[in-house]
């Protein structure tokens, strides 16, 4: 059986490899890049990067010195306080520097911008707004509260602003993306339902012009102040992990911001860049000097050039429409064009315009274009880039004709573009005691308005016949495998799987090939040219067969339909490890992986490789050959090797990096019956020996990840997570990884986003 291998958009860049054999399977790498060309210099296909190499200088308020230590811990660096920005030299390259806001004020304008990047960290408890001069001069500004400090917000902020992590290319590679606009006058009103509001959304828009800042006595400010907007943005970002779109819509384009002062727009939009907002909505009517300046100053943020026409006379097949697009793309990462129409046929004119732009300007930014009003709703089902959506829980819609994600999916189903599919959770006999997943997936499908059926089925202990039977259905829509199956076992197929892709077998994602484990099977229709994350769309079945009617649906997949074998677990591990720490915290550090087999360890190894760790110490398994080339591996085979791991750095030298003198991250894939062994090793690495590099630093807290989910054959003996916390580790468990993996699995299977917070909420666990 042959298999084509396709890389994922967020992989650590692997080199091109030749095909190689494994039992009956040979694999060739397909390196076709399907994501739009990245027009931004700081990111590469949405992966992890070193980011901004300048020295990070944190400016703090009175009595807030401790925030410097938190920044340093998140970034994985030591810190020290200095009297002023001018005191920072190249000798501080590997440090986070803290300078009081009062001292920085006199020097910030004359700072060496090539040497330092400044962040004004302002605690809102001290009063708002922050120092106006510092806010205007600093590179970035982060607002926080003492009462409810959200570490994840800080991690997301520094990962984004310093260019270490960006999701833009990943989003643009999705078959469809949506954003929801929060039309509340006060963000507080949205927070209780934010987990439900954002299901199906890939980003959240904050409509700054719709915010109402109270002035007292029932009066409101005509324009919300930057101080009020900053606090509102802070609240929203603390409660959602989704990217945020910052919009100041003008009065002419159905908003409330006055048009008589374009500089006001620049002031607010540039401040949004300083606040680390992912997407900045810049209206096309603004002077070119302002649009160009924002584009040049955007840092890691992305510019959405926005054009709206409410006249009812705009025509898509016109020279004006093309001219507007060309004018927009000059200073944009995404071009947004929206018009109100009077005739249904104008929806088809928009589709012709969309295809014309794509054909004639293939290197241009992605186009998001829809028609407004009830007549234009059809266009919202056809637009694939950041379609604006609403939700029944919102007080008002942001624009005429907006639909919810569920309404769009239901409309697509009605016109045959989203046919009913059977999606399976394929388990093994050992998972019978696991928490039922069917109710959760049904909740997600219902919230998204998807027509699919979901069922949990149990595979046979031996052979692939049952799996191939479920996959070889005309209405098969994909499956997850729990536990994951070895690629070696799947490669033994000489039947249905081997016949796919003209006898070449299923397509393998780069992750599945390197990890050697498959936990997700994705359907790729014959007509699809998108990535492996494209949701399957087999022809609509005529007989309305249900999930359980396997025997009556065995007409087989439509001709030339491919199956993609993928692995989502590594993304769950990666997201867990970077939830409270920036990627740079792991760069070059040492790690320990405990597992009973290479199969159990492979997903963790792949995630650590993506994080660019310096060395991985292994316990209990032999490293797979695929990782031996790309990772510095050392097995623990004696007490001496363990002692060496405790006292030297990943590269064998001393380092000032926090925790570098001992493994920074410990990942255990051992079953719960081996908890005592895990706890012993955690204690061993919990406190580095006296005199070890990095010892005694306030920001040297290490990370422990326990992948044991309690489904093993033996009872848990001790709690390694509790032991880890007692030894100074930040401990994470299988529930965190499972939730993040579920987010990725749903994205792969149905092509839509279900936020981590909703996964935890809908699965019956508390989010916080």
TrEMBL record:
<dbReference type="InterPro" id="IPR001381">
    <property type="entry name" value="DHquinase_I"/>
</dbReference>
<feature type="region of interest" description="Disordered">
    <location>
        <begin position="527"/>
        <end position="555"/>
    </location>
</feature>
<protein>
    <submittedName>
        <fullName>Pentafunctional AROM polypeptide</fullName>
    </submittedName>
</protein>
<feature type="compositionally biased region" description="Polar residues">
    <location>
        <begin position="540"/>
        <end position="555"/>
    </location>
</feature>
<dbReference type="GO" id="GO:0003855">
    <property type="term" value="F:3-dehydroquinate dehydratase activity"/>
</dbReference>
<dbReference type="InterPro" id="IPR050068">
    <property type="entry name" value="MurA_subfamily"/>
</dbReference>
<dbReference type="Pfam" id="PF01487">
    <property type="entry name" value="DHquinase_I"/>
</dbReference>
<dbReference type="InterPro" id="IPR013785">
    <property type="entry name" value="Aldolase_TIM"/>
</dbReference>
């Amino acid at each position: 059986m042959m298999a084509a291998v396709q890389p994922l958009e967020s992989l650590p860049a692997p080199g091109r490899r030749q095909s190689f054999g494994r039992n009956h399977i040979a694999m060739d790498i397909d390196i076709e890049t399907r994501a739009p060309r990245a027009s931004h210099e700081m990111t590469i296909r949405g992966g992890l990067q070193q980011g901004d190499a300048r020295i990070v200088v944190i400016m703090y308020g009175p009595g807030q010195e401790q925030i410097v230590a938190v920044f340093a811990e998140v970034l994985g660096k030591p810190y020290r306080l200095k009297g002023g920005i001018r005191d920072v030299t190249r000798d501080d390259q590997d440090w986070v520097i803290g300078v009081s806001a009062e001292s920085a004020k006199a020097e910030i304008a004359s700072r060496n911008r090539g040497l330092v990047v400044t962040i004004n960290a302002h605690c809102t408890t001290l009063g708002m707004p922050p120092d106006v001069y510092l806010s205007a001069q600093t590179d970035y500004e982060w607002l926080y509260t003492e009462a409810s400090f959200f570490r994840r917000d800080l991690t997301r902020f520094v990962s984004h602003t310093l260019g270490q992590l960006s999701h833009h290319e990943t989003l643009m590679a999705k078959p469809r993306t949506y954003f929801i606009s929060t039309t509340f006058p006060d963000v507080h009103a949205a927070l209780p339902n934010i987990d439900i509001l954002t299901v199906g959304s890939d980003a959240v828009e904050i409509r700054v012009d719709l915010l109402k800042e109270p002035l007292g006595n029932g009066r409101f400010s005509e324009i919300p102040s930057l101080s009020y907007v900053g606090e509102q943005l802070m609240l929203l970002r603390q409660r959602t992990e989704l990217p945020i779109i910052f919009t100041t819509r003008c009065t002419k384009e159905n908003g409330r911001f006055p048009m008589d002062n374009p500089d006001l727009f620049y002031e607010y939009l540039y401040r949004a860049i300083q606040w680390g907002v992912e997407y900045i909505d810049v209206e096309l009517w603004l002077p070119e000097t302002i649009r160009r300046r924002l584009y040049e100053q955007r840092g890691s943020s992305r510019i959405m050039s926005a054009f709206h026409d409410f006249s009812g006379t705009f025509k898509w097949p016109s020279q004006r429409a093309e001219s507007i697009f060309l004018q927009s793309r000059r200073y944009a990462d995404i071009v947004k064009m929206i018009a109100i129409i009077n005739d249904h046929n104008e929806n088809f004119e928009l589709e012709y315009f969309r295809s014309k732009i794509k054909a004639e300007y293939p290197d241009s930014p992605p186009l998001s274009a829809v028609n407004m009003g009830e007549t234009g709703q059809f266009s919202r089902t056809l637009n694939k880039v950041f379609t604006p959506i609403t939700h029944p829980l919102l007080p008002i819609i942001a624009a005429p004709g907006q639909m919810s994600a569920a309404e769009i999916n239901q409309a697509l189903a009605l016109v045959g573009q989203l046919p009913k599919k059977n999606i399976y959770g394929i388990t093994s006999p050992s998972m019978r005691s696991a928490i039922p997943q069917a109710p959760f997936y049904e909740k997600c499908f219902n919230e998204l308005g998807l027509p699919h059926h979901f069922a949990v089925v149990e595979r046979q202990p031996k052979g692939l016949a049952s799996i191939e039977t479920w996959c070889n259905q005309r209405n098969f829509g994909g499956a997850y495998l729990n536990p994951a199956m070895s690629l070696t076992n799947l490669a033994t197929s000489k039947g249905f799987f081997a016949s796919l892709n003209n006898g070449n077998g299923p397509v393998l994602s780069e992750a599945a090939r390197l990890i050697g484990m498959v936990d997700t099977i994705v359907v790729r229709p014959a007509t699809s040219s998108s990535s492996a994350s494209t949701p399957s769309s087999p022809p609509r079945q005529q007989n309305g067969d249900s999930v359980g009617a396997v025997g009556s649906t065995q007409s087989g997949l439509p001709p030339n339909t491919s199956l993609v074998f993928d692995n989502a677990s590594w993304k769950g591990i990666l997201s867990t490890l970077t939830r409270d720490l920036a990627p740079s915290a792991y760069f070059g550090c040492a790690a320990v992986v405990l597992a009973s087999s290479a199969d159990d360890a492979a997903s963790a190894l792949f995630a650590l490789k993506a994080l660019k760790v310096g060395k991985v110490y292994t316990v209990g398994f032999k490293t797979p050959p695929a990782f031996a080339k790309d990772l510095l591996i050392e097995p623990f085979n004696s007490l001496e090797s363990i002692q060496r791991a405790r006292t030297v750095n990943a590269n064998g030298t001393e380092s000032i990096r926090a925790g570098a003198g001992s493994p920074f991250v410990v990942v255990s894939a051992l079953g719960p019956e081996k908890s005592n062994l895990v706890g012993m090793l955690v204690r061993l690495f919990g406190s580095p020996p006296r005199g070890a590099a990095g010892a005694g630093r306030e920001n040297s807290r290490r990370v422990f990840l326990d992948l044991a989910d309690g489904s093993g054959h033996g009872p848990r003996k001790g709690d390694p997570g509790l032991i880890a916390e007692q030894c100074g580790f930040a401990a994470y468990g299988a529930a965190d990884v499972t939730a993040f993996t579920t987010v990725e699995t749903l994205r792969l299977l149905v092509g839509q986003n279900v936020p981590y917070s909703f996964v935890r909420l809908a699965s019956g666990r508390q989010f916080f």
